[in-house]
Specification:
The complex is a heterotrimer of chains A (545), B (404) and C (371). Chain B has 404 residues and is of the alpha/beta class. Chain B is built from 14 helices and 13 strands. The chains are: A alpha+beta (545), B alpha/beta (404), C mainly alpha (371). The interface between A and B is medium-sized, with 31 and 32 residues.
Chain lengths: 545, 404, 371
Amino acid sequence: MTAVEEKDHFFRNLQDNEDLMTGILGNSVDLVKRRITFHEHKNVQAICYYTDGLVDVTQIELFISDLLYKGNLLLHHSTLPSGPPLALLKEHMLTNASFQVVKEVSQAVDGILSGVAVLILDGSDEVFVIQTKGWEKRGVNEPQTEQVVRGPRDGFTESIRTNTALVRRRIRDPKLRIEQMNIGTRSKTDINIAYIEDIVKEGLVEEVKKRLRDIRIDAILESGYIEELIEDAPRSPFTTVQSTERPDKVASSILEGRVAIFVDNTPFVLVVPSFFWQFLQASDDYYSRYMTGSFFRFIRYLAFVLSLTLTSIYVMLVSFHQEMIPTQLILTIASGREVVPFPVLLEALMMEISFELMREAGLRMPKPVGQAVSIVGSLVIGQAAVQAGIVSPFMVIIVALTGIASFAIPNYAASFSIRLIRFPLLIAAGTLGLLGFSAMFALLAIHALTLRSFGESYLAPATPFQPKDQKDTIIRFPWWKMQARPVGVTGDEKRVGDHQFPEPPNTDPYSKEGGKSKESDPKGGGQSPRKKKRHVIKLKGEDEE
Amino acid sequence: MKRYLKWSLLLIIILLLTGCAGKRELNDLALVMAVGIDKGEEENSFKVTAQIARPADARGQTGAPSGQTGEPILTIVGQGESLFDAIRDLSSFTTRNVFWAHNQVIVINEDLAKDGIAQVIDFFTRNPELRMRTWVVITPEKASTLVSTVTGLELIPGEAVNKLFRYGEISNVAPNTQIMDVQAAYLSQSSQPIIARVTLKEVMVSNKKPEKGPTIKQVDLAGAGVFQEDRLVGILKPEETRALMLFTERLQSGVVTTPCTSKPERTISVELRDQMFQVTPHFKGSQISFTAEFDSLAVVVEAGCPFSIDDQEQVTEVEKAVEKKLKKEIETTVNKVQKEYKTDVLELGKVFHNDYPGYWKQVADDWEEVFPTVDIKVSVNVEIKDSVLLWEETNSGKKENSAN
Amino acid sequence: MKVQISNGMFMALIINMIYAKAIGVTQGSMAREVGGDIWISTLIATIQGGVIMFLVIFVIRRMPEGDLIDQSARILGKWFGKFVALITFIFFLAAYGPVMSTFVFHLKDYFLPEAPTLLFILAAFLIGTYAIYFGVEVIARMALIGVFSIIALNILLMLGSLSEFDIRELRPTFQMGFLRTVWASRHHNTDWAMATIMAGIILPMVANKETWGKMGFAGIGYGMVFIIMWPILEAGVLSPETAAQYIVSCMQMARSAQIGYFVHRYEMIMIAFFALSILTQIMMSLLCASVAMQKILGLKDYRKVILPTAIILHAFGYWINFDKNRAVDFLEGWWVYISIGVAVGLPFLILVMGFFFKKKLKKEVVAEEAK
């Protein structure tokens, strides 16, 4: 390390360079040092460094064999005096696609550790850095956390280049910029920032970069590290940075003027700014027809409300406001509760916690055992507890419904923050009744209202109310209606062209021009709406008569 | 900011700790389904009968084991100088909090009603727990007997009375009086309360001794009690109640039966539909009078003698007969209320007030004296427009019989 | 950074500011005086409220960068400004009595009769201080949600009570005479007074100056639409006599509402919606009082005085509501005179003073612009 700090340039002497590198890299087993001698009569020595496992060995073989045979030949025929044959080799021989000449030691070392091969030639203070990256990676699989019925099945992987390529394949726009950054003093993790230059909101990219640059940390192992270090509301239970495994989601976010942050070694890509309602929207909404999409979205809003409030409302009703329960229902509830020894609040907390336990256990268990856990859990909680008279059957239904509702929320992180804020609400409702419920709800609402995500209100566009953005909140409007990008993007606000409402060609049998397709319209693609255009055609026909 | 957070945290904790005030577990509640109010044994005291549901028995096995006593209700009686006192008395021998919010019906004994029910109205409208749509009924029986009588298919008598009222529109024999109606009428300057009346009637056949005919008593809707302020002054019979309800409530369907002209021993029944009832006040000189007009379309729903809607003459005859019967019905009720009970349950004062607010002020204070003297004209117009499915008369196909 | 709120939020704030008390407590007070004519009194008060609102907007427009207090300070100097600030503070202090009464009457009497009043005051204190710490924008956005909940509440109530509606209870009109009907409108005027003085404090923060007037009147108009339903239904469904009998007549109606046989009572859902609106009102009163306090003390930021102001206001609110008789007497008596006196007197005073010292106002504006 000290050597790097003291001197950041290579020596001319190979032996010095070798000592330098050994000083920095030490004797790790995965670091390969290959000594090569070529150009026999001049006895040019060279050392190749690379990290085993991070490189594609055939690439290295290829280039070493090139060096040994073609290089020999080249230098043999050249009239060069002894000395660094670097320039010649560089120009004439090395066919590797990505190839650099580097002077700084630190750069070369970083390169070795990230999977390139470094070739140090005797007598030169510059070294070759040859791209030979190639390691074992997981193939592109279906994302585990965000599944869709209709939509692409590819998900991000742990390799950052694959991930950016997945997005690039969806947006072949030269304006799509992907910028490189390294964060982590020890891990030196690759971070890429992707955005579309003429759509993204002004100042957003600079803000993101600034926040990223300010991070001082030794290692980034997952995008969660970044998320926690750049989010706006670190003390809030709400997540203000969206993370996703789906390339299509990232692409659509980028098209809406947002910025995506790719982190190497994790399939989770961050998207900022993010809004609360986004967490309730699934990609399916946009791929299925708008009516089904809107309906599913409505169901998800319902799931949100249920998972947040259902248990609290039940506890509040049963322990404070029994007069609000319909008479028929209260008799049923009361008959189920007759033998339950616990207060409702305790019963609810018990059930909620055992539910969370079951969920966590099912998640951590090896898959074959996980099933056993869920069977035991559902038996114990569902039936035995009721028959033992510890829990009322109604409570089981309520907790189960809450659990199912929370699983219906497409974003895992959001689903968890809702689960978290459910508990204060439950306790407040169980101790102070309606007052506690509404007070806690108001506090949560105020808190959510104060949140911002990269300068944007977290609850937008519901509040502050953006009439233009309502086309994609409660109801997913059909694409031919959703013409504009969200408010706040710079330039190119239009997404969908005019008159996209699909219609069959005019086949009105009563019109003279019946069956005439719209292409035959002399004005073609005019500015006026279609209906007017049609009217014009008809009039013309009459005139001709 | 940090200090602020600490403070609010402290406040939240204090709030939650001081909480649980007013918390009642459902297990600790005795759900009252019906309440009966009788005169107490002492002077000016009340006897309150509460009918409390036993949820486990009222709902049967719902998963958890629970005590099966087989009795869905528990009926207990408390005494006291006031209603509140009597209810307090109840809690000295119930193991749970007496909870009134699910009370379905308030039964008031007629003896008590004759002395005045102002205290009952006050109590049942002052308490936030109580519902404003609770039914109020009076009964000549002991309220405690009525409250504990199991009626119909329901396990809980309170629920039974509730359903009697809800689905009793067809029979039209008692007004639907809820506590909020009684309260409004009592507070009003221009109208007087009426309360539905129920009795016990032997209508149920015992399964064990079916040959003895109906022997078991059931709750039966039976007319209405007419009040002067808060005192019961008279009773209207079930058949008189329909005419009363024309004045006070939204119109419901009704059936009128008249004897056939050709065969007086047989009857024709018509069902009244699309009824219009309008009371118009008149003020001439210093004489107040009212005209009550009743228009209705009618449908023939049963004919004991041959009837076809094609036969205009016959239709007119039936119309006339129905009109006559209806008119008599209304006039009887009006007369009874006006001349005998002398109390304005017909809301005529309100009608007059609406149209003649200036004159109302002059008569408002002694409307009680004026009301029995006003002239009420009744006119009825019924048109038969439909005979449901049948077009031809229902006649025997055998020649010799039909010739008859 | 200068806080700004949109015009829609301003409108929402006006609606929330008047709604909570106007639908129940006010109607009860008016019903005790004019019976079935409460809806006419409500209409008359709305017109009067519109006039005061117009006055305030007109006054603020002359110097759009400052509120009522700043403007009076500009006209007659620092001490006059402090005097006006003191009056504003007293106004909102007094307002807090009825506001807390509304909160306590609704939630405590109908839902948690056994809970101590202090609990409700503490809850209001907690939410109020927490919210105004984040400034007017958050409250204004809350008010937007409040408007939606008001609409939901109105629809819910109509579902459950229209079937019992009896038009005869509303007739005849003006049965107590025209003058008494107008006089009774003073109770509803107090609600408008609160909205007007609030407008006088927050108007400079509203973004689009040109449409202040339009938005102010739109707020009044929508407020009226949302409110007028209540007196009509209260008289028609409950009968005027019953409405007069209760302190909170709207709750009585909510309690009587019924959708079918199964949903025999659902006032709790309605109150949950109502809570958002009343909490917005609590926050806004607290904020305006804090701003007034800040100007009395000559501080730069009102956040420093939130705690003392909130403690004073809530102590007063607790004292008033400890005794129900005192609470109702105050909101039907003293509060009427204080609120209408201030709401009419203050803008009028500044208006007149502004005419006298027109040049001074202009000069300073020019001087400021020159800077």
